[in-house]
């Protein structure tokens, strides 16, 4: 199938197998290897990208479903040489160790910062709560870090959220 999509601000027209995942399209066909294939089951978040500004596990999304849509990967977060505020905060707070999950963590955090409303830990469901460490941990719970850098990841996100 022939699809058109925008990836990191660049338009692409590409033939894809209807069974191809967005992750495989990004890595194998477009050469964008920032998004990682961790579990390939949507459980670890290493493949998280932004589709129309919302978080998505690219290992579960079909490439054909991206026809006409805009996708942002970790490679598209920075503005040229200027790092995205989250990228700078992750460096400043030492919010990574091996770095395998970092691209997914960054994309997930970027999407999360734009998502209003309560989460499972919000006391009053009618509130649009402040992003406390508990809120951040809950909202980022779909992104796993085998190295256990969670404390620094939450600190980095908290700084940017302020």
From TrEMBL:
A molecular function (GO) term: anaerobic carbon-monoxide dehydrogenase activity
Record keywords, A-Z: Iron, Metal-binding, Oxidoreductase
Superkingdom assignment: Bacteria
Domain 2Fe-2S ferredoxin-type: 1-77
Matches recorded under Gene3D superfamilies: 3.10.20.30, [2Fe-2S]-binding domain
InterPro entries: 2Fe-2S-bd (IPR002888), 2Fe-2S-bd_dom_sf (IPR036884), 2Fe-2S_ferredoxin-like_sf (IPR036010), 2Fe-2S_ferredoxin-type (IPR001041), 2Fe2S_fd_BS (IPR006058), Aldehyde_Oxdr_Iron-Sulfur (IPR052914), Beta-grasp_dom_sf (IPR012675)
Signal peptide: none
EC number: 1.2.7.4
PANTHER family, A to Z: OXIDOREDUCTASE WITH IRON-SULFUR SUBUNIT (PTHR45331:SF2), OXIDOREDUCTASE, IRON-SULPHUR BINDING SUBUNIT-RELATED-RELATED (PTHR45331)
Protein name in UniProt: Carbon monoxide dehydrogenase small chain
Organism: Nonomuraea coxensis DSM 45129
Top-level taxonomy: Bacteria, Bacillati, Actinomycetota, Actinomycetes, Streptosporangiales
């Amino acid at each position: 199938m022939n699809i058109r999509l925008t990836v990191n601000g660049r338009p692409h027209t590409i033939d894809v197998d209807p069974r191809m995942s967005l992750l495989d399209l990004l890595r194998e066909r477009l050469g964008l290897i920032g998004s990682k294939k961790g579990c390939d089951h949507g459980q670890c978040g290493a493949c998280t990208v932004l589709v129309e500004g919302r978080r998505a596990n690219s290992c579960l999304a079909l490439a054909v479903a991206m026809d006409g849509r805009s996708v942002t990967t970790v490679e598209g977060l920075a503005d040229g040489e200027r790092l995205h505020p989250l990228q700078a905060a992750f460096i400043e707070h030492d919010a990574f160790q091996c770095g395998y999950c970092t691209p997914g963590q960054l994309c997930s955090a970027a999407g999360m910062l734009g998502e209003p409303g309560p989460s499972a830990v919000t006391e009053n469901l009618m509130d649009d709560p402040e992003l406390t460490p508990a809120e951040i941990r809950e909202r980022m719970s779909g992104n796993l870090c085998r190295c256990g850098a969670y404390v620094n990841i939450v600190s980095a996100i908290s700084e940017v959220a302020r």
